[in-house]
Amino acid sequence: MNSPGRRRTPVCFDIDRNFDDLAPRFARNVYGGLKGEIRLAVLRRDLHEVLPQALRRAGPRPLRVLDTGGGQGQFGLQIAACGHALTLCDISGEMLQLAREQAAALQLDTVEWRHCSIQTLAAEVQAGQREPYDLVLCHSVLEWVADQPGLLLSLRTLVRCEGLLSLSFYNRHGLIMKNLLRGRRPPILDADFVPSAGSLTPTRPLEPNAVLRWLDEGGWQRLCHSGIRVFHDLLLTPEGRAMPEAQLLALELELSRQEPYRALGRYQHVLARRLCAGGQTG
Predict the structure, then answer these.
(1) Residue 93 maps to which CATH number?
(2) Three-class SS of residue 170?
(3) In a domain, 282, yes or no
């Protein structure tokens, strides 16, 4: 509840979120510090298990990779540094500038930059103006868009037959648990969840089972499913926060695919393969 006399500026829920106004803070809070290290560690682990098969399917060439809503490019640029062809798109020019600075620091000069929406790129593929991709990254985007099932349809257009989608999204269950541990009834349980305009709490947390159902019904084969920050955000005592970082990171990775811990992850990560016509892989 807001303090008396304090007015909260609500987020507009009928448009997709643009982070021009919060780019440096977003970059710092999402990928800075231990929270960011846990996120990247889970993503790297999951991709490293699946990419060898994708490389065999692609043949003797670099993968064509698209980082959608790529922001500062923390993960996509790591893949580009391994020699793969990266396109990074974002609707925020400020976030793209941060990504360009990261690319310059890594001496990457072959990245294709697109200041546009995911839906725009999907329309270009649909019109035959560009080829679909071997691997599409969509990390921490779904929870900020107005039409979530529609975005998944756009992502399917962007992934070639038998190509891969790396999808991470903000978990409704993790948000509820964090509120409960702080001793308050979560507003989202009463459909009264409205983050302020300056908040980095996503506007549309997702029910994981709903996303998994959308993927299954949309012609995707799930390859792995992990939780991200399955207990880090729930450490509310000084003793818990004093856990050595290396031990915490190892435990996060160990428990990230085990229930009930996975279900409480602040984010969820799903790797899926786009099935060919008829629901078969090649």
Answers:
(1) 3.40.50.150
(2) strand
(3) no
Question: Residue 4 above 50 pLDDT?
Answer: no
Q: Find the range with the poorest average confidence among 109-113, 199-203, 243-247, 262-266.
A: 199-203
Q: Which residue has the tokens 């980095």?
A: 200
Residue 239 lies in a domain: yes
Tens digits of per-residue pLDDT, 217-263?
999 999 999 999 999 999 988 888 899 999 999 999 999 999 999 99
Domain annotation covers residue 48: yes
Strand pairing category for 133-139 and 159-170: parallel
Q: Are 254 and 151 in contact (CB under 8 A)?
A: no
pLDDT at 157: 97
202 residue type, one letter: P
Query: Has residue 132 been placed in a domain?
Result: yes
Distance CA 262, CA 108 (A): 35
Distance CA 93, CA 97 (A): 6
Residue numbers of the domain that contains 159? 23-275
The total of structural domains in the chain comes to 1
Q: What is the mean pLDDT of residues 110-132?
A: 96
Catalogue the long-range contacts made by 188-197 (C-beta closer than 8 Å, 24 or more residues apart): 194/8, 194/10, 194/11, 195/11, 196/8, 196/9, 196/10, 196/11, 197/9, 197/10, 197/11
pLDDT tier at 200 (50, 70, 90 boundaries)? confident
Return the SS3 of 62: coil
Q: What percent of the residues of the chain are helix, what percent strand, and what percent coil, each to the nearest 5?
A: 45, 20, 35
